[in-house]
Amino acid sequence: MKHNKRWLTAVVAGAVIAGAVPAFAGANASPVDTVAAAEASPPQLSVLASYNSGSGEAGAEIVAFDTTTASMLVTNGVLVRVDIVSLADPASPALVRTLDLSGFGSSVQSVAVAGGVGVAVVGGATVLDKGKAVFFDVATGEVRSSVEVGVLPDSVTFNAKGDIAVVANEGEPRCVTEGGRTPTTDPLEAENPEGSVTVISVRNRGRWTRAQQVTFGRFNSEQKRAALIGAGVRVGTWPGSTVAEDLEPESATIVGDKAYVTLQENDAMAVINLASLKVIDILPLGTKDYASTGEVFDASDKDLAFNQQVWPVHGMYMPDGIASMTAPWGQPLLLMANEGDTRSYYSGMDNAEVAGQGCFTDEARVKDLPLDPGVFGDTATLQAQAALGRLKVSAVAPSHTAAGLYDSLASFGGRSLSIRDLQGKLIWDSGSMFEAIVHTADPTQWVTSATTPAWATAPYDSRSDDKGPEPEGVVVGRHRNRQYAFVGLERAGGVVMLDVSRPTAPQFVQWATNGGDISPEGLAFVPAGVAPGGKALLLAANEISGTTTVFQLD
Predict the structure, then answer these.
(1) Would residue 343 count as lying in a domain?
(2) Tens digit of each residue's pLDDT (9 = 90 or more) over 206-249
């Protein structure tokens, strides 16, 4: 693809803000879409303030905004609490109170709010035990009720009315024996809980009236399992697992009476009817064929260059965060941040990487795989470290072997934002845009290995062989009669702002970072109509630095 690289970089209040005349065309944009006009003077994000939890890594991960108290709710995984921070003056965040959740479990995973009622999901005593959803009054900090959810609750979201909360329970495995929970290196012995989704009805300002675990057991038959695999859903990678054990719900968005749930490791999406409490479908998200589409990316962390090329690889989208919006023509659409994730597990409950204690991995570097020269040609050149050799790909499906040689390769994550319809059909994908944005804004840092930019978790090129900038979370907001998507880049840092008013041809507006922020995880948009001060806000919680930044949309 051809990219417009007329970038403007400025330093604003300790932040690096990269803006441009937006002219990126998505990987699936039509010729008409590529010339869509950008807003003449798009709004810009500027850093207004930052709240520091003081807890460092895991001190801030997910953030939500309560309009009734003008406060933001920030999870603190270190102290197992939710910080309630007043934004009455958005330029001066002030901690009002903390909500101690240690009595409900071992780790606070996520938080959401609706009409003054907050809900936090807390992991069980271990990652293999069921967690809880805890409902509380934001104004007083009073816990109103709690209810059991599934294993390893990863996210929670309210519907528009605030009377239904949906919890995605990831149910990750651990390499310990079932029952005794002694360390094992045999994945067939490992404890592998089922993934699930908990649907909770909420009444009376935070008192739940019904909680239903929606599971995937009906897909366990050999016939349905084969149908899912044939459709492109990535199940069966963990040895001996059922479909229900293999599926790992990550994030959810609600459209009408249905929840759309990302199944990241499975490169798929589940659709759940909130009225019948049934799984309607599990939809494959497919892969992007870089060779066929001509999409480029940097595949090596050892090439000492920004080396975007077209490679003979398929990319699994594997989204983490998901959001929804309504297109100008009235159609509901889904936006997915295609982070990607691998399954690498070691013996023991803490899954610590110890030599000789490997239990299961689904990843391998291209240099270590036997490639079919009839498909890939000069395999020695292709597998060099400065070429494709360092790239991590799936050692199992959807990578494919024939006669002992790999004839197709699939990498982890789409390195992009996708817009899809409710059936999962791809409408637009940002392609290599994010990688190009990061490099062009600060090209001298791309190959620097001795120092790390203040807003990044690692020198940029060090992630090229993994999943690139790793788009993690996404939120959509309406401002001045236009719709904008905000995407957090976990590894590169900062937030990418896109004008998605025309979903078939979104326009890049800005990449905004704040010095000291590392690994944005959760995002929340506050419209101007309800924001204190009357200007729209974007809140970004940063997992590694434990900071939450308040951006203002000017």
Answers:
(1) yes
(2) 999 999 999 999 999 999 999 999 999 999 999 999 999 999 99
